[in-house]
Amino acid sequence: MSIEETIQDIVRREVATIKDELKTELPEIVRKATRKSWLDTNDFEEEFGISKRRQQYLRDSGQIPYVKDGRLIRYKRAEVEKFLKDRHIAAEIQ
């Protein structure tokens, strides 16, 4: 096998590896880049499945930060995700 063929083989394998990584990582990158940084109560309910009543309880009990402008309530996405992550309980596999 010549040096050129060896180089082509290495490049081919690397390109295939990069393609595989992009197939798995690119959708997540695009989703993060295009999502809203602030959520209203409807967005919050749709994305995380937490009802408006439960949201109100979380606000009233000071468990989740929010911004209120008149009647409009908004949540910062990063804070909502942190709130949920902090309360995540891993399953115990026996």
Q: How would the global form be characterised?
A: elongated
Query: Major sheet, described briefly?
Result: 3 strands, antiparallel
Put simply, the count of helices is: 4
pLDDT < 50 stretches: none
**Number of E-type strands:** 3
Radius of gyration: 22 Å
Describe it for me?
The protein is mostly helical. The protein has two domains: 1-34; 38-86. 63% of the residues lie in helices and 12% in strands. The chain contains four helices and three strands. The protein has helices spanning 3-34, 41-48, 52-60, 77-86, and strands spanning 38-40, 67-69, 72-76. A three-stranded antiparallel sheet has the order 1-3-2. Strand 2 (67-69) and strand 3 form a beta hairpin. The longest helix has 32 residues, at 3-34. It is elongated. The protein starts with a helix and ends in an 8-residue tail after the last helix. 6% of the residues are buried.
Quick summary of this structure?
This protein is mainly alpha-helical and 94 residues long. It has helices at residues 3-34, 41-48, 52-60, 77-86; strands spanning 38-40, 67-69, 72-76.
